[in-house]
Hints:
This protein has 155 residues and is α+β, with helices and mostly antiparallel strands. It folds into 2 domains: 1-37; 49-154, Lipocalin (Beta Barrel). The protein is built from 2 helices and 8 strands; from the N terminus they run H-E-E-E-E-E-E-E-E-H. Strand 4 (88-100) and strand 5 (103-111) form a beta hairpin. The chain is extended and about 75 Å long. It starts with a helix and ends with a helix. The relative contact order is 0.13.
Amino acid sequence: MKKLFLLFSLISSVYFYSQNFSAVNDILEKIENKHKKMKDASGYTISNKKFVLVEDFEDHSERHILQFNADNSLTLIELIDDKATGQSYSNIFSGDFIRKKNAISVRANYLEGKQIAIPIIYSLYLMNANDIWYLKDINTSKRWIENNNLIKKKN
């Protein structure tokens, strides 16, 4: 009797699991259809383009400006505004990047001309929505918007 009950519970769990699995497949199909609309950015050049990330915290705000140069080098400017004192601080990093289609790997390993022990590394994905180009950080989902698009929005 125990073996029969165990067999019945095993079969019923497989049946209910397969129903759940079809729902997961439906969700995956929706995600795939959504991503098919994404553009291939192979033809879009990022040379001499700037991308900006703005973050606001309780005690300070940060602006990060990422400029890509034609020779696969980059400049990362970090501006920090202290809300308590009103002072601004800046750090200027330099480094290089590698691009493969929409994926961009950024490594900033020099701080104001001096090599640093632990470089700043970003894994970014180049995306387009409503003719606005932006970089999405793969690890944190933060978005770096192209500087030209910020200027258009303000006008």
